[in-house]
Each structure stands twice: as structure tokens, then as C-alpha cells.
Description:
Layout: H1 2-20, E1 23-37, E2 42-44, E3 48-61, E4 64-82, E5 89-109, E6 113-124, E7 128-131, E8 134-135, E9 139-141, E10 144-156, E11 159-168, E12 173-176, E13 179-180, E14 183-195
Antiparallel strand pairs: 1-3, 1-14, 2-4, 3-4, 4-5, 5-6, 5-7, 6-10, 7-8, 9-12, 10-11, 11-14, 12-13
Amino acid sequence: MKKLFVIILLAGLSLPAFSQNSGFGIKAGLSSSKVDFESQQFIPDGSTTGYHLGIFARLGGAGFYVQPELLFTQTSGEFKLNLQGNNGTESYRADFNRIDLPVMLGVKMFKLIRLQAGPIASFNVNSNLENAAGTVNDVNFKEASIGYQAGAGVDIGNLFIDLKYEGGLSSVTQQVAGFDTDNRLNQWILSVGFKIF
């Protein structure tokens, strides 16, 4: 009985610290994306800009926190396909519309700065591939992919700013134009969020 009383007392004393770092809010931002291939047939062709928006929850105390997020993300990537013989290259643009579920594990320092990292699961909503002739139909987008995110953030009252890097751990397509692909979507992400409560 005494042990139960001590546990309840400690939980009650830690609740203010826990709730101080916890909350729920909205976030949005921009990304700079690039599609990388494990193939000499496909050549990345620069970075493109995308956006994201959604909600987050932050749960934590004593400087540590967990932050699950639910985001709609629109990203894209441009690349070229080396054609056989002397036919040169063909340019493509892929647009990825997806639902992202990152779960950040972080530490807060000096009541201002945060360091965070964690996994992300992405689910394809409506992605497409285009070349000079229009939409390409012989492309097989994967229904889901996984990756990781890592970065830092700053809290200013209920407002926060995050800068993260996302790396792909699985490919986002299985085939493009009849060629097997192993392509990963990598991006830099800048977010602004607001804790509602």
C-alpha cells in the first residue's frame, strides 16, 4: 500500500513538468526534395520544392518527448533516363502525394532548443509520373514506404520552428518505363508549428 501511495505521489508531482512539455497543434512547411537512384540508367536532375500540412501531438517531461505527426505531403522529383544506343536521355518529373506519419523522439535543452530523430511511414495517395509526352502509365508506385527523419527545432512560446532531413529506407516505385527501380526520396524539411493547447 505504501509503494502504491509513493508511486501516485511521484506521478502527481511530475504531472506539471510532463504537461509543460506536452500539447497538441498544427504545423505546415516547405521541403526541398531529390530522388536518388541505385542505377546508372536513371540520373537525378536537381531538387524540387514541396509542401506539407497537418497536426502533431507532443508528449513528454523532464526534457524528453515523443512527437507523433499526421501530415499531408506533396513532394516531387526530377530525373533523366539514359536511353539505349545514341538516343540520349529522356526527362521525367514525379509528383508524390502522400500521407506521412513521422514519430519523433527528442530532447529539449535550455527550454528553447530541441534535437529529434525518428522513423517515418509514408502512404501513397495519388502520385504520378510525367515526361515530355504527358503522363506515363507504365510506372508502379509503391503503396507505402519507410524512412527516417532527424533534425533540430526551436520553441518560442507556443510557436516552434523545425529543420529536419528525411532519408528514404525503401523505394517509392518498383518500375519506371519498364525498368526495375530502387529510388529513394530524400528531402530537407522546414516546418512552422503552433501548439493550440
